[in-house]
Amino acid sequence: MKKVFGYLFVACMFSLTLGMTSCKKGDAGPAGPQGEKGDSGVAGNAGIIYSDWEDATFTLASDDATYFVDVDAPKITADILNSGDVKVYTQYYTSSGQLVVMPLPYFDGSYIINVSIFTGGFEIYSNSDFSTYTDDSGNKAFQYRYVIIPGGEAAARKAGIDWNNYEQVKAYLHLKN
Q: Rounded to two decimals, what is the model's pTM?
């Protein structure tokens, strides 16, 4: 009896092995119907938050040497500060009417414009009054803008962008104006 069960076991294993090795995947079925195509999203700036160019009025600090302005930016969160980046820019027009955009902090040997970023906003401070004003041609000078780059966008940091070159940042992030 033991021999019969032994032969039966060997025969079952042989059949199972033969069955498994001789199976093959079937042919692919026909393609199903295509659904409607969705709208295109905005290219290249998913998750990027940026402000309009905003006016700022500086106040002279009690030390009579420092000017400052506090800017509310509620989208600057602790998570952004820990894993993202916030860039702040200012702009002015040259005497020939050409727009110049500068990243902060700024130092030219005489003038300093610095920025401290914190949850909910930032403070711009300087050794001179860099409040927004309108020049003789009607152009506003020394307006300020911030750009929030959330964490998880590490590839953006490696994309060869000079984050201190506003034109490169503007093009890369598809910023308006």
A: 0.63
